[in-house]
Amino acid sequence: PTPVYGKGDDKNFISVWETVRKFPIIPAIRCIMQPVYVGDVVKAILGVMENPKTSRKEYNLPGGSIVSFDGILRFTAKQMGLRRWVMTLPNALMLAMIRVYEAIVPHPAVRYYQVHKWTTNKELSLDEQRRDFEYKPIDFETGMAKTMREAGLVRAAGNLNVAVGTAPDPQ
């Protein structure tokens, strides 16, 4: 029930990146979520395989941070080196605006179904996952900065393609 992001994202956050790139003023919905980095999902799958504590159990896999949607937009703009004004609107108004936007724009960057699914606040516990298979997801800013670097979306610092204020990956 939480968005997954990482290298090759072509569904969850690509529309966020396109919106931030295209528009200087960005309306945002009111919601919180715990996006999870795809690498953490892979580690979780490996952690539950052949683990007797996890037999016949189901787990949610939230990310390591609870973030607001407007915070995601601001972080994305900062990573891209763009100045953007993020304006948080009531969800009903935002959803109505998305319907109009879809009706008049031939290839909208954002669709109603994407925005609507984010209006449900998703704060999930990590306690059981940590106890059963030592699940330790990375925080949103670390994971998204890495994802955006891999996608070539981060403002260059000197000759390095890294976010200002973060260290390059040791790889």
Characteristics of this structure?
171 residues, mainly alpha, 7 helices, 42% helix, globular, disordered C terminus
Tell me, briefly, the overall form: globular
Fraction of residues in H or I helices: 40-55%
Computed CA radius of gyration, to the nearest angstrom: 17 Å
Beta strand %: 5-15%
Count of runs of 4 or more consecutive helical residues: 7
- End-to-end Cα distance: 32 Å
For the largest beta-sheet, the strand count, sense and barrel status come to: 2 strands, parallel
- Looking across the biggest beta sheet, what order are the strands in? 1-4
Which regions are unreliable across 5 or more consecutive residues at pLDDT < 50? 157-171
Order of helices and strands: EHEEEHEHEHHHH
Question: What would you note in describing this structure?
Answer:
The chain has 171 residues and is mainly alpha-helical. 42% of the residues lie in helices and 9% in strands. The strands form 3 sheets. It has a two-stranded parallel ribbon with strand order 1-4. Helix 1 (14-22) crosses helix 3. It is globular. The two termini are 32 Å apart. Residues 157-171 have low confidence and may be disordered.
How would you briefly describe this protein structure?
This protein has helices spanning 14-22, 38-48, 69-80, 91-104, 112-118, 127-133, 140-150; strands spanning 4-5, 25-28, 32-33, 36-37, 67-68, 85-88.
